Amino acid sequence: MHEVALMVFYVSEGTFVLLTNIPLIIVIYFSRYLRKQRYLTLLGGLCIADTLNAVGYLFAGYYRISVSEFAGNASAVLPQSTCFFKPHVIGLYAGYQTTSIMTLLVTCERVFAVFYPAKHMELLNRQFVRMSIVAFVIVFILGSLGGASILEQTQHELIHIYCYVMASLGSTLWSFLLLFRIFNIGISVLLYLLIVWRVKQMSKTHHSAQRFSRVTITIGLSIVSALFCMLIPDLVMYLDPEHFGKYHMWSYLLGLNKSLLNTFVYMLRHEEIRKALCRIITNWSQCCTSTTSESSVNNNNKPQWL
């Protein structure tokens, strides 16, 4: 019963993250109001990664609730290879990588912005977004290929029907995934310390650092949430899997909460995003009102004998 309650929470929070992140992604990439705000593009990348992660949690909750009636049986097992290709395992395997990769990418972008502001603006207007997407795809493919090669070497055994990610991937691939996230987020934390130092130096020498502060603080808050919700739990789980492994589901929940925190950070810190969302909602409501009014007028103008 405890497992089912936690899965209901997975479904509820995963759905909420989807309902809040998808409008953010649409506004950042497709709204004409934010078309000139190119620095928001990588924030949109973080939203996409968090959305992919939330999809994995949503599928995990739905699947485990659907098989919960069989979970108590001793025969409720599946081959490890079968579990690996369950939608929630694939979603979380991809989401674990994308969230850490995007965290590292946006941090590198901020490093480039504070150390080379002139070149950063030039690249941001021309090729930086494309370069970031290409780098993301390359790293993700390399990570997936590395994981797949490790999967072929793991011993396939029968595991619980819930298909927990840790058991579905196997100890070797799970360790690879943890180290991958630990490395990316750890480097991001170290780079952000360098960013903070550079911004302080710029403020002391009377250079204009204000235009970097808002996005830099937003990225910093995202890195802090990744530090406490992903890096520290991953590190503890990697160093002491036997004792911490039994709490792995709560570790997953921390990762989902990180996605939720990011959504609120973006909304609260960036007024332009809120305004763009309000404009779209206002235009949509006006369109619906106009359509309803026209329909009412047409009905009133119909001959009474019809």
Low-confidence stretches: none
Span from first to last CA? 59 Å
Q: Which fold name fills CATH's third level, the topology?
A: Rhopdopsin 7-helix transmembrane proteins
- Largest sheet data: 2 strands, antiparallel
CATH superfamily: Rhodopsin 7-helix transmembrane proteins
- Gyration radius (Cα, Å) is 23 Å
CATH architecture: Up-down Bundle
Helix coverage percent: over 70%
Query: Tally of extended strands?
Result: 2
CATH uppermost class:
Mainly Alpha
Task: Compute the number of helices.
Answer: 11
What's the assembly state of these chains? single chain
- What general outline do the C-alpha atoms trace? globular
Provide the succession of SSEs. Answer: HHEHHHHEHHHHH
Membrane topology: Multi-pass membrane protein
Pfam families: 7TM_GPCR_Srsx (PF10320)
Transmembrane segments: 6-30, 42-63, 94-116, 128-151, 171-195, 215-237, 249-268
Keywords: Cell membrane, G-protein coupled receptor, Glycoprotein, Membrane, Receptor, Transducer, Transmembrane, Transmembrane helix
Topology diagram in text:
Elements: H1 2-30, H2 41-66, E1 77-79, H3 80-84, H4 87-115, H5 117-126, H6 128-153, E2 158-160, H7 165-204, H8 210-239, H9 241-244, H10 248-269, H11 271-300
Antiparallel strand pairs: 1-2
Helix pairs in contact: 1-2, 1-10, 1-11, 2-4, 2-10, 4-5, 4-6, 4-7, 4-8, 6-7, 7-8, 8-10
Key traits:
mainly alpha; 2 strands; 11 helices; Rhopdopsin 7-helix transmembrane proteins; two-stranded antiparallel sheet; 306 residues
